[in-house]
Structure formats: C-alpha cells, structure tokens
Amino acid sequence: MRTLAAVALLGAAACTTPYQRMGFAGGYRDSLAAPGINRIEVRGNAFTSIEQLEAYFHRRASEICNGNKYDWRMDSGASNDPSTWTARQVGRSVQVTETPGFRKGWVTGLVACEDRGMTVATKATQVPSDKVQVIEVRSGRVAAVSADVAFSKVPSSSRFAFVTDGRVAAVTPEGHRVFVDVAKIEAAKTLGYRFLADSELENGVNENEAAATTGDNSPGANDTNR
Questions:
Q1: Are 180 and 122 in contact (CB under 8 A)?
Q2: DSSP assignment, residue 182?
Q3: How many Å apart are CA 103 and CA 119, to the nearest integer?
Q4: Residues 98-144: pLDDT tens digits?
Q5: Which of 15, 138, 168, 205 has its CB surrounded by the most CB atoms within 10 Å?
Q6: Measured CA distances, 115 to 67, 97, 133, 135, 196 (Å)
Q7: How far apart are CA 167 and CA 184, in angstroms?
C-alpha cells in the first residue's frame, strides 16, 4: 500500500502545472497595469496547489524586477470547471449522473519594482530654501509651496501633509503604516495605499491601521522586501 501511495504522489507531482507562459494547462502571464506597476496572473490545474502558484508569482516578479526588491499585493482562490452531465438509459428509465468539474487554483496581483536610481534621484532633488514640499493626500499630488503658506495650512489639516526627507506617510490596504518615496507616489496609489494627512499623523491612525511598523510593504521605502 505504501508503494502505491508513493506512486500516486509521484504521478500527481508530474501532473502539476509547470512554471511556463500561460497555456491550456495554466501558467503565468503579466501585463503593465500602470507606469511602474505590473499585473501578474498565475493559474494551475487541479493538481497544482495555491502555494505552488504563489511561488510562481514571486518567481515571475523577481524576473520582472531583475532580482531587485519589490512591493506586491496578491489575491488567490480557486474556481470549479463546469460539471459534466451523463445520461444513460436503463430499461424504460433514464439515469442522469453529474460529474463535478475540477477545482483549479489561481493567483493574481500587482508588483512594483524598487528602483534604486529613482529613489536616489528624488532624495537628491533640491527644494528652494523658501519652499516646503507638501502632499494633497486625496490626489497624491506633491507641490513645493512657500514656507509661510505651508505652515499656515498644513498643521492639523485633514487635507495636506508635509513631505519629510522625500517621503510621505501612508497606510497599505492591509493596514500597515509605511513611508513612501515621492518617486513612488503613483505606484502606491495604484496599489491602494492611503496617504495620511497631518491631522492623522498628530492623532495617530486607528488601531487596526497602526498594527505594523514603518518600512514594511512600501514602494521606495527603506528595507522594502515582501
């Protein structure tokens, strides 16, 4: 019995979807979702686990980002193929049998590669001494305004926040509080990040959003590695 079980396991492993471009048996495909953002989709057959598909997702992400760090968001699940119905006549009656379809897994998500060159260039950008960078949190728009205007409008504002050392505070869809490099604002918006206004920074974000520490999960932030 052990021998038969081992043979069955080997047979199932041989039938799993390999790492390949999307085909009839599944695989991966990717496309550009927005500037600097790639969408990756991975599908497998009935013998391929979600964990294996997630491994394929990260393998493809690493290839796209040339081995550099990247930020990512991922969803996964499984769907059933349509059932097959078979009718068989037995005497004067007809027996109908349903064969459920195979359950196949899928993984889809977004990837933002960490661009070291862009991060360095942004931090090196000189802001005039009489100007201060601020962000309008709803639109993600960053502007350099006079210090007088900035310090009269931003403190305790629910609309604006200061840009500090080329970065802004944000909360990821998972509730992690992070800092985002201004060069990655568009990528962060596409990934669903919410930028924090000065009033939120003063009062603290809600307990669910403040569960994680700064630096985890942020495109362009230091030590980003998910």
A1: no
A2: G
A3: 43
A4: 666 568 899 999 998 876 544 333 444 566 777 888 999 998 888 88
A5: 168
A6: 11, 56, 22, 21, 23
A7: 9
